[in-house]
Amino acid sequence: MAIITPSQASKSFQIISSLRYEPALPELLKAQPTDAYPDPLRSPYYLLPYHQERLLKAAECFGWSKAVTFLQQDVKSFVEHLNSFIPDRTKPWRLRIVIDRDGECTVEVNAALPMHPLSLLLPSEMNQTSTPWRVTIDSHRTVPSPFTMHKTTSRDDYTAARLRARITSSQDPAEVLIVNPQGEIMEGSITTPYFRRRTSASTQAKIDQEDSVPAWITPPLSSGGNAGTTRRYALSQGFCSEQAITVADLIDDEECWLSNGVRGFFRGRILLNVFKP
């Protein structure tokens, strides 16, 4: 279990989760099997039960009993709370749920960038048509802590990594991969990454014969990253499996997938030498 140091515990921070409100999502989900998507309400809030559970685990980690009580409400009640913040239910929105140690929950709402709703489902031909994001590797190492394993407003490590990667805006089609002291990829600064499966020659033939084996991998939580909602969705649906991957395993110019709770799934391209002279 991660240990919170006294200096970390004294910080003023909130737990957060960002997601998309997409009015087209309920209609899109009508064509999906009931076990292929985790929200029994099929609400416009993308993967909402996963966001609620992730926030609950963070509140439990930090010992915030009032926040735990608030987050233990049923999903339908949580939807009603979020609805009070939506200015126009016919439009897509980017939501940032913010909860403090006293259990107070506020929601920051901003207009969401337009995108095809199919990108919210698992990778398909639809989201293969987008231009890949530039994906670079952080030059520094980040020590795993409760603030990398849970999403909070204490994001200095991520902000510093994005500045080193020359990412100056949340709208930039660029991502930087966070690396732990062992050289393992933890996660992206705002996304979960997925890489082509690494196998030895002796096991590749077996994998080729087994259609059930995912062709993609994502870093395990033991590498120090947080349990992203789209990551959980991709794992539950068999799109990927967990496997530790180091910087040395990555290949320059190879394609990868990225995902988060606002943009769904989209392509990336790994550039190992982009900032080297």
From TrEMBL:
<dbReference type="GO" id="GO:0003824">
    <property type="term" value="F:catalytic activity"/>
</dbReference>
<dbReference type="InterPro" id="IPR043132">
    <property type="entry name" value="BCAT-like_C"/>
</dbReference>
<dbReference type="Pfam" id="PF01063">
    <property type="entry name" value="Aminotran_4"/>
</dbReference>
<dbReference type="InterPro" id="IPR043131">
    <property type="entry name" value="BCAT-like_N"/>
</dbReference>
<protein>
    <recommendedName>
        <fullName>Aminodeoxychorismate lyase</fullName>
    </recommendedName>
</protein>
<dbReference type="InterPro" id="IPR036038">
    <property type="entry name" value="Aminotransferase-like"/>
</dbReference>
<dbReference type="InterPro" id="IPR001544">
    <property type="entry name" value="Aminotrans_IV"/>
</dbReference>
